[in-house]
Amino acid sequence: MTTFTSVLRDFYEREPDRVSITLQHPNQPDFHISYRELIERSNDYAAEYARMGVKPGDVVILILQHGKDLVYSFWGAVLLGAIPSMMPFLTEKLSPERYRADLAALFSHSHPTGVVTYPEFETDMKALVADHEGSCHVFIADRIPLQEKVDFASLPGAQAKEDEVVLLQHSSGSTGLQKGVALSHRAIFNHLNSYGASINLTRDDVIVSWLPLYHDMGLIACFLLPILRGVPVVQMSPFDWVRAPYRMLRAISDYHGTLTWVPNFAYNFCAQKIRDRDLEGLDLSSWRASINTSEPVRFKSHEMFFERFKGFGLRFETLQTSYGMAENVFAATQNDLSKLPYVEDVDRESFTTDRVARPAYGGRPAIQMMSCGQPIPETVIRIVDDKGHDLPERHIGEIVLKSTCMLNEYYNRPDLTKKAFLPGGWYMSGDYGYQFNGEIFVAGRKKDMLIVGGKNVYPQDLETLACEVPGVHPGRTVAFGMFNETQGTEEVVIIAEVDSNDEAEHERISDEIRKHVTKNSAIAVRYVRVVGPKWVLKTSSGKVARTANKEKFMKELEANQ
Amino acid sequence: MSAEMHQQIAEFIAQKILRQPKRVINPADALISSGLIDSFSLVDLALFVEDTFGVRIADSELNANAFDSIEQLANLIASKK
């Protein structure tokens, strides 16, 4: 039987000195953690969790930044047979109102008995935890007592069953935090097998990552996959990377990195924002695949990135694509790494009005599409219409899938779990796409969600935050995404209606909204537009019509340019 | 701080980062701690400052402790000249 703990035990007994993970922090030597240290320090957490009343099967929430504490507290929960869940960490100081709302969302379904955080948040966190029913202990990262030795036989995690839930993954925001994707040991190992095969993973690979671990791409591809498979991984913090994007390239060069996963915007970001002086002596020739996933993939972004870095040994074939979702553990498709992703131009009008991706012809306006590859082994994909019937090739419909690595459930949310599946166990992704020649192309979203810099954002969370700003008309805010070709990602637009028509007042409120949303969501807001009475369009049932408001905003933007 | 330097930085922030060309930014307004400038835009600001004023800004300086207002940024620039 293969479980997380049984795999760790094997490493502990057979290769304790092998490096499991390397953590980078600016201006500090790189920190290498062997399997022995990983397991012994995680065992300290497991013992402390148990001592304070956390039981196998309980949820433990981790509110920590990139670093060894996050690693040990996660595996400590695993060794205890508890269920770790990482919560997004906000950059600046904790905003108590936001954490109250986020914790309420998390507690509503997961009823954690432990929260791990830093000393500076101890007081706030204890106060917040006290608001909730049931006992929940606040653990402080630097106060975990050392244990004498690891005794696998007595660790409850060693008794875990393959079909039991091993972790929860959430999207950020109050909406995402109410919906924990519960994954079993079996689903994750099945996924590592099938996904590992589709990228020809070996122990000679070296993974480099700046991705946050609360996101499936960071957690699965750049944390669980390397640690459970004995593949070296070098990690840095997303906060450090965003200030110095050359760091990922430098780590690839220094460690002979072979694999990375990055969202589309990162290609544009690196191509535009890295200085020549930071590239001196860089060698990217070891890099065999950089897999673009978690937001819409753009061929232009690949071209831009390649042009910028081809002089440093980067190969065009390194730039690859995938499509996935946390509910399938991580990937659902993967491009064949020996080939370039398939790119085609489709007729814009057919695409938007008939919902068919016909090859472009006769010089008519076209949309460039890049394939996300083919379904990974043991994942089957169908494209269906509103009634769940299969659509022919090139017809755009919802992407639905079935696999051996599906989520167990949305944790304690049978209502949401039931709604997510078609009869026969087909998971409805909420994404639109089409198939051609076995290739899967993603063509937009059915669900109301934005993806900003690879991060899922629910517009209703941003609308709620904007409504919290004094002067904004309750219920009359709209948030949506607008794709920006230069940035390679969606940019967030928030529109908020107020009573006044005074421009200075609009500017003042727009600043307040920007500050409030940025502080409370860690989402960068590009446009904040404050508008006078009766600007925001509603549907006949009184709901804010996001698409109609987006069209209205874009028309005004064009008219002003 | 020269009025010209303030003006150049303020215009860059208003136009390129906030996309509100008419937006007035005062020398003492908090930029980073207030959330006005998000982390994705910090590198843009650093590149602009380097190209315009010919000084080097280290990535460890891209936070509210190093500078949080145009005034402080101008002082940082002046200290490097």
Task: Characterise this structure.
The complex is a heterodimer of chains A (561) and B (81). By secondary structure, chain A is an alpha/beta fold. Chain A is built from 17 helices and 28 strands. In chain A, the strands form eight sheets. Chain A has a five-stranded mixed sheet with strand order 11-12-13-14-17, with helices on both faces. In chain A, strands 18, 19, 21, 22 and 23 form a five-stranded antiparallel sheet that branches. The radius of gyration of chain A is 24 Å and the shape is globular. Chain B has 81 residues and is mainly α. Chain B has three helices and no strands. The model of chain B has no long low-confidence stretch (mean pLDDT 90). Classes of the chains: A alpha/beta (561), B mainly alpha (81). Chain A binds chain B through residues 26-27, 91-92, 239-240, 242-245, 269, 273, 275, 453, 507, 510-511, 514-519, 524-527, and chain B through 18-20, 22-23, 33-36, 38-44, 47, 50, 59-60, 62-64.
Task: Looking at this protein, list some descriptive labels.
heterodimer; A: 561 residues; alpha/beta; Rossmann fold; Luciferase, domain 3; GMP Synthetase, Chain A, domain 3; 5-stranded mixed sheet; 5-stranded antiparallel sheet; 34% helix; B: 81 residues; mainly alpha; Non-ribosomal Peptide Synthetase Peptidyl Carrier Protein, Chain A; 3 helices
